[in-house]
Amino acid sequence: MYSILADIVVCIHFAFVFFVIFGGLIYYFWRNCPYLHIPAVFWGFWVELSGSICPLTPLENWLSELGGGESYRSSFVDQYITQFLYPTGLDQNTKYYLAGGLIFINLIIYIHIIRKRNRSNNMSVHDRINQRAQEQEKKSFF
């Protein structure tokens, strides 16, 4: 049971890392996403630069130990996801590059979002009406 819970925590951890890296793209579907995503980016940036660990990591280890540890090592989650989250030979210099890459990727995403928003704010009323009509045509069933 504990090994299953450890696998679930690893999956949540993986999803959070993926959200930190690419969560800005969710803006196109949910406009309030930056309120969750930007603090998550700063958290990931801080964790990488400070050399600290995410609180999910000790929870994963604790659940894995309660589950016997050995069965956890041979699971699908450990073989594929854990290797991504905890690569071997990850020194502090590499963490600096990862933190810089994290900021770079998210800057590109948010610059694109801001440019798109500014383009739509600078449209004339007639263009906005036409754009909304086109969006409605795409949404209509017939």
Description of the molecule:
By secondary structure, the chain is an all-alpha fold. The chain has one domain. The chain contains 7 helices and no strands. Helix 1 (2-22) packs across helix 2 and helix 2 packs antiparallel against helix 6. The longest helix has 30 residues, at 92-121. The radius of gyration is 21 Å and the shape is elongated. The N and C termini lie far apart (50 Å). 13% of the residues are buried. Mean pLDDT is 78; it is low at 70-76.
* Strand runs, count: 0
Largest sheet: none
Question: What Rg do the Cα atoms give?
Answer: 21 Å
- The mean pLDDT is 78
Category from helices, strands and their pairing: mainly alpha
Approximate shape: elongated
The poorly predicted ranges are 70-76
In sequence order, what are the helices and strands, one letter per element? Answer: HHHHHHH
Please state roughly what percent of the residues sit in beta strands, choosing from under 5%, 5-15%, 15-25%, 25-35%, 35-45% or over 45%. under 5%
Question: How many domains?
Answer: 1
